[in-house]
Design a protein that fits this description.
heterodimer, A: about 110 residues, mainly beta, seven-stranded mixed β-sheet, four-stranded antiparallel β-sheet, globular, B: mainly beta, 11 strands
Chain lengths: ~110, ~120
């Protein structure tokens, strides 16, 4: 069974730029997987950041952007702020349902 | 404003059953695919089921296939998840979420605890 992979953790300095990735244990991620990205803080439901590779959800600042980088989907955060410290999940449409990655814990320090 | 409100969670014994509901408002419910996603305590998100706008297409994750049944009532703007033969590993917050290739809107979730 194909597994969706994410970095378990990442850190970024305030004001810095970070790119989180979303890959497949076998194969490459393309736009055909409709990659999406979600931000979650403890005790809250997920917040949708990006859908269909690079479309920002309503109200999401343009500091967040989605793309395909090489064989992975990517979420880039520019000008990182303290309240960006969260868990970030990607999800891929696999033809008969969605699969989430294991999530990346982002620390801003 | 889009709103999704889950209900029906609670404590149930292993082997028991529970039915979750999700009340939708603020959008044309019968035009959208809906999903259930869960999150076990301290763990990541897990998609578990998908139902198309007309109920014509339904998918399940392998972890719940044969035990859970998704359904919807477009006249009542409601989504359901019938959960049977519950196991301890089904303990999680269950979210309903709108979307076909991703989840544009989420509810606040309802907690299901499977324990004796």
């Amino acid at each position: 069974q194909t597994v969706v992979t994410q970095e378990p953790s990442f850190s970024v300095s305030p004001g810095g730029t970070v790119t989180l990735t979303c890959g497949l244990s076998s194969g490459s991620v393309s736009t055909s997987y409709y990659p999406s990205w979600y931000q979650q803080t403890p005790g809250q439901p997920p917040r949708t950041l990006i859908h269909t590779t690079n479309t920002r959800s309503s109200g999401v600042p343009d500091r967040f952007s989605g793309s395909i980088l090489g064989n992975k989907a990517a979420l880039t955060i520019t000008g990182a702020q303290a309240d960006d410290e969260s868990d970030y999940y990607c999800a891929l449409f696999m033809g008969s349902g969605m699969v989430f990655g294991g999530g990346t814990k982002l620390t801003v320090l | 404003e889009v709103q999704l409100v889950e209900s029906g969670g609670g404590l149930v014994q292993p082997g028991g059953s529970l039915r979750l509901s999700c009340a939708a408002s603020g959008f044309t419910f019968n035009a959208y695919t809906m999903n259930w996603v869960r999150q076990a305590p301290g763990k990541g998100l897990e998609w578990i089921s998908y139902i198309s706008s007309s109920s014509g297409t339904i998918y399940y994750a392998d972890s719940v296939k044969g035990r859970f049944t998704i359904s919807r009532d477009n006249a009542k703007n409601s989504l359901y998840l019938q959960m049977n033969t519950l196991r301890a590993e089904d303990t999680a917050v269950y979210y309903c979420a709108r979307g076909t290739y991703g989840f544009g809107y989420w509810g606040q979730g309802t907690l299901v605890t499977v324990s004796s």
